Every structure is written in structure tokens, then in C-alpha cells.
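FORM 7B - TANDEM STRUCTURE REPORT

SECTION 1: FIRST PROTEIN
SEQUENCE AND C-ALPHA CELLS:
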Amino acid sequence: MATPKSSFVCSECGWSTVKWVGRCAECQQWDTMQEASASRGLGSTKQVAPVRLISSAAAKPITDVSTKPIQVWPTKVGEFDRVLGGGLVPGAVILLSGEPGVGKSTLLLEVAANAARSGSKVLYVSGEESVGQVRMRAERTGALVDSLYLAAETDLATVLGQIDAVEPDLLVLDSVQTVASAEIDGAAGMPSQVREVAANVIRVAKDRAMPVILVGHVTKDGSIAGPRALEHLVDVVCHFEGDRQTSLRFVRSLKNRFGPTDEVGCFEMTGDGIREVPDPSGLFLSRGESPVSGTCVTVTVEGKRALIAEVQALVVKSSSPQPRRVTNGVDSSRVAMLLAVLERRAGLRVSELDVYVSTVGGVRLSEPAADLAIAVAIASAVADKPVAHNLAAFGEISLAGEIRKVSNDKARANEASRLGFVRTVDSNVGDLRAALALALNW
């Protein structure tokens, strides 16, 4: 019998080849090919017996399928429940991704403690920390509950054995890249190992109707757990993000089979753990008593929530042939387009100026509704004229200088009015020149 041949698998996307190459042909990443021996039994000619379907697994008409409503189990963490669509669903598998050190373990330990306090049995499996380290964090955050069980395991068979022994109502696995199966060749974290671990945990979750939360770290390009196959296997994908220099954290829903997507939850990291921020609009403002040029307030919509955010701009005369364009919290290509529209349609000379645009509080503005606030902030900095404290601007700017209507404009106006912004500049103004004249009293 011939010995199994070796293959090389990309640690980023899972693409395989029979010989080593320096660059993956699928994801174009360098130095990601790792050797892995071929699976045993590959190429076997053994006949597989046909599978006989039992009555419970047989196909049935769609009209005969039960329509029981899904029972949602709240986690008692309001912002996390908002992102999940109300809470945990029995048998659902949730993938929480994020950069190392952003606060994923702290949040999930809080969720596990709340579930244990409500009378449920919770198993928290850590592959990165010892049980002593997890207990120290639990003492600091007040998460010591008798029905919260801890285990530090990196072997898949042992993890499944812990599930059989404890029989938990909720499982938290931190993280999926640290657990490996002895039946699969390769180190923990490789695409084959991650898929095998996830497939077994998902199978147990469905069989026991047990919700499972998987933690997945992101790579340098932002993909979850190396291979993106995990996103298709699980029911819910959430991303935990935030700047380490600030205490503000966001949980965004990227995929949800049981609730809305693009929802966001706001948290604040403190010395005692993580704290919910139900009304985060005030965190994104930096308002002094007197107006300052180069600032403008906008209203952004995250899921169903309208949030107030402040855009700041600074312009200085450039000392180099190529003026600098520095952005933080906004898309740099979008700012470059707005600068071109301001110069061509509004007559502002910005081609010889260094332009710096940033948001307050670490919030990221990705929707086109922030175009008008960015343009107003830049124009205010160029003219050195402050914008009124009670004015908010939102609207998409076209290349022709027109202000287009954006979605949820009534919700944006109501949120601005609730926080004292009685004047709004939006698509009703018409074009960019008129909007700048109204905002800056030109």
C-alpha cells in the first residue's frame, strides 16, 4: 500500500496544493502554506452501503413542518441582546470575533455569569487561560456563581467529554483556534482543525438544543479565524471592535439567522469589567461652551439606532508638493471625493492644503449620510467660521454637488431634536452651496 502523500494548505483560506509555493493562489497571501499529510483512506475504492432513512429524517411537505415560535433566552446584557435579536436561541451557534485584547472574554464571562445566576448551568471552556486566571477575572468583575463551570482544555475529545459530564445549558468556547482534534493532522488554528472543531461543536449544539458561543480571533486583514468558512457554518456572526486607546467598544451583527443584521451594541471597558452604554450619543460629542471652527455634528444610523456623532476637520497650508490627507474614523477615499466636489462645485481652494478629518470617541462613520457633515466641517475649517451649536447635518453628496436623501431621515431628525439640535441641514436644502451657506451663514 502506498504511503499517503503530503499536501500544503493555506492557513488563511484553506486552499491546498500538492507542492509548496510561496504565495497562495487563492487569497494571494505570502508565506501561508503549511504542510499537512493527506487524509487516511484517500482514494479508497471501498463501496459505501446506501443509507436507509428513518421516518423522522424522511423528507416531508413544507406544509407539514411544525411552526412553533422560536424561544429566545435573554442574556440579561441588554446591548448584547439587542445585537442578537432578543437573546440566545436554543441550538444556535454564535461566533464572536475580534482582535486579541479587545474584551471578548470579559463580555462573555459577564454573559455566562448572568445565565448562571438565572438558574442555568454554564460551561466556560478556555483554551488560552488557566482556570485560575479566569477565576481572577471573575472575582474582579463580580462573576462568581456556583453553577458556572470552568475548564481549561485544548483537545476536542476532552471538550466533548466535559460537555457530557456537565450537561450545560450554555457553552462558551474561548477560543476556537486553540482547540485541536487528534483525528486531523495539523496544528491548532489551521483551517482543517478549525472546521473540524466547529463542525463537532455545532453537531452537539443541535443535538442538545444548547446555545454555543465561539470566540474567534481575527487576522491582520480582518478575516475571522483565518478561514472564512466559519461564517457559513454558524448561525450568528458578531464582531467586537474598538480602539484600545479608548474605553468604548462596539458589538456589530454581521449575520443573524434569528434577528436583524447590522445592529450594534455599545459598551465601555472599566476597571471592574464591561459596562453597557444604552444611550451612547453623548460619548461621541466634544462640545465646549463656545463654537469652534472645523466641527460639525451628524446623525448616523446603526441598525435601528440613531446615534449622534461629531466630525472634526483641520486644514493647514501644505509645505510639500503633495498635500496630506489624513483620516480617522471615516473613509479616506470618500474624503478625497468630497474635497474634489468642494473645490469644483463650491469654489473652496483645498488642493494646496493639508486636510485632517477625524471623528470623536472612536466611532466609525461608513454610511454616505455623513458626507454633508464632513463637507461642512472642512468648509468651516477653511473659512475659519464655526458652525452653530444647535445644528446637525446629514445627507449624501453627489459628484454634481447635489444633496441626496438618505434612509431613516425622520429618525435622524428626531434623535437630533431630542439632544437639542433644533436646526438640521439635509436633502431639503438642495445643493451643496446652499447647505454651506445655511450652515455657515454665508
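SECTION 2: SECOND PROTEIN
SEQUENCE AND C-ALPHA CELLS:
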Amino acid sequence: MRTYLVDGSNAVRRHDYDPRFPAVEERRTLTWLSRLDRLSGGALGKFQVEVFFDGRARDVGGPYAGLRIRFSAEARADDMILGVVRLLGFSGRGAVVVTEDGALADEARSEGARVLRFSEFEDRLRSRKA
């Protein structure tokens, strides 16, 4: 089964992100996760989607049938994503990291993961090629 590891913080903080307006980030998070869950709805065991956010656990809506939501607490979400990439690699399974963070993308590739941008990932979900 293919595993997509999605950099959720990176996804909602792109395009005019301003940390002075946490309500905007919260609204973006809920909207984006709802869309991603709808797009992931047809997985039926073919793939899984894990979405990682920086910081402590908080309400991000849901429940989401097609998504697993994870929070990094005191760590960095990037480090958690890379840890899962390594774990999957050790077990003989590959991962696909979904991010637009260049440093994370480079590290993920060096660990053997494939990397997709958000638009590519959503296109694959829409076309049922995930």
C-alpha cells in the first residue's frame, strides 16, 4: 500500500500566510483538510494519507475518513515525516512526501522517498491515479 506523508503546515501556510492572523490559518486548515479528505475518499485500501502539522494537537475538524492527522508537539513536523520515511524504508515500503518545502524535499529524496508538490498530489487524487 502506498503511503503519502503530507506536510500540512506547509500546505496551509503557503500563499500569503501571515502568522498575525491565526484564524485565517485555522480556516485554511479546515477547508484544505475537507477537500483533501473528499479527494482521498476513494482510497479503499489502495493508499493511505498521513497529514503532519507543527505544534500541539488542536481541533482541525473531522473526523476525516481518508486521512490520518498527526501533530509534532515539541518536535518539527519535518522531522516526524522523515522519521516515517526511514521507518517505511526499513520495512521495505516506500513513501511519497507531499511538500513544497525544498529542504524537506531534498532530505526525503536522500532517504529514498518520492516527492510531489501539492498540485501534483491533488491532481493524482482527482484522476484516481494515487
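SECTION 3: OBSERVATIONS ON SECOND PROTEIN
The chain has one domain: 2-126.
Strands lie at 2-7, 47-53, 67-71, 95-98, 114-116.

SECTION 4: SIGNATURE
Preparer initials: ____
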